[in-house]
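Blinded run. Sample ID left blank on purpose so nobody reads anything into the name before looking at the predicted structure. Input follows.
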Amino acid sequence: MKSLFYRIAIRLQIVRWAQEQQATAFMETVILFPVLISLLMGTFDLGQGINANQKTIGASQIIGDLITRDRSVTMSSLGDIIIAGELALEPFDTASFGYDIASVQFDATGNPVVLWRVTANMPANDDAIASTKGLGSEGDGVVVVTSAYNYVPYFSHFIVDEIKMKEIAFLRGRKSSTVTCADCPS
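Blinded prediction complete.
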């Protein structure tokens, strides 16, 4: 009789132990699941943000590269070039994409003089133009392209509303020292 009692007691103890293990595992899951989901969503937003930044860099480089291929551009050809820069941002929404494109020629003292400038959806980046001082001798030129993009995270927007990205590309003309534009604003 005693052995039967001990067997039943051992079985009951094993059942209690199993129930306690399940309760502990359930509580650990309840505590860790929101943390793990938050980490997953944050990792996704971080990856998308890095991707958007790389595409913003690509957009400024594409716009600058296409402009510097010729000796001169027109407003019509600039429109096509800007569309190419926007296409570099796909699949992201380009509504917040902005650009500042300036062709600069250096005077006798090495100071940059803006020949023409086209800006949309962002303020003109005068600091980028000023940073070119001394980069060339008289008559040399450079095209300065600043692209800006506001990335809005999918999940983390309650923490960070948007992330402002700005990239600057400096390029020299391939066929001439400066790139001109007859119908662009100066």
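Unblinding after everyone has recorded impressions. The chain has one domain: 2-181.
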